[in-house]
Design goal:
By secondary structure, the chain is an alpha/beta fold. It contains 15 helices and twelve strands.
Length: 391
Amino acid sequence: MLGVATMRILLVGNYPLDHQQSMLRYSEMLRRQLVDKGHQVEVLQPSPIIGNLVSQPFLRKWLGYIDKYLFFPIKLRSYCQGFDLVHICDHSNSMYLPCAGDRPASITCHDLIAIAAARGQYPRQHISGTGRMQQRWILKHLIAARHVVCVSSQTASELRSLAVSTVQNISIILHPLNYSYAPVSDEEVHQLRQTLAIADDPYLLHVGGNSWYKNRLGAIRIFHAFRKRRMDARKTPVRLILAGRPLSQEMLDYIAAHGLADSVTVLTNPSNEILRTLYSGASALLFPSLIEGFGWPLIEAQSSGCPVITSNRAPMTEVAGEAALYIDPEDESGAASLIAERFDDLHTLRVPGFRNLQRFDADTIAQQYAMFFDSIVSGKINQAMPRVVSQ
């Protein structure tokens, strides 16, 4: 690549038994894109050795710590010597940074939500004593890093407030798509509708887990208020599809108490192909998160031609740009009224959504990473890289 010498780059990935699929896809995407740029790239991740000895989740979690924090650092220290640069793909593995020794090293910070919760910034969230210890450990090494990539301006701002002046270089490189989302045919959408037994009903789609900040119950509450307004106006009923983790008992109780069982469909851990079809057929993605590090579903939806309804706060506003309907995620009645008012016009967000995606081109972002790595290896990062790479 013009202006960037070929480098030998070691990417440190996540422990497979933690099942952090987005992080596993992220490290593989980065490897693939950098190889396409002509660099020699490997992904090294902790191997499940002790963790594979049991199937019980609680024991597997604790035995996995031996794999991650005892065995893997020994391997990493010797393995990284053959590379020009070591990059930790997930900030939750910041404790691996010292293993790079005298090798140049950097890390990607995806969000600071768990760290902030452990520091008491979200009083209603209970964090165990061991959880607080782990997050302090992560933060200690993260703010000692010399070179950090943040995936949004919001995350960079939060890191600067924590690190003050300890992190020497914070650059912002947005996420690209980590799967080839694109609109599917009407026939594929129809087939999935038949499978889910939802006929031709219009539907809103929520994608995410049950973490408090995902505001999944809030999405159900907003849908309930929106559905009532549709019914009062004698308009076509709309469904809600919840894709991701199984619902919590609190969510199930709310659905039952408000008579929503016939209007809500739950799809547990759908494949990327099914998710792409869900996006393609949806009237809109409903994504009322309270906080995010980035918010991948926003660009997944836009790339599939799905209009976006999301929170009127960063980083959602940064990621979705001008191609979204913004709501206050904590004003459920107001959000429902705005969605009801704009529902029939949401399709007008599709074209702006496709335009917004140009900022998340994987090839461009890989080039930004290559420039970032090259400037570290060459020792010219202060001159070669702006503080904000892409925004």
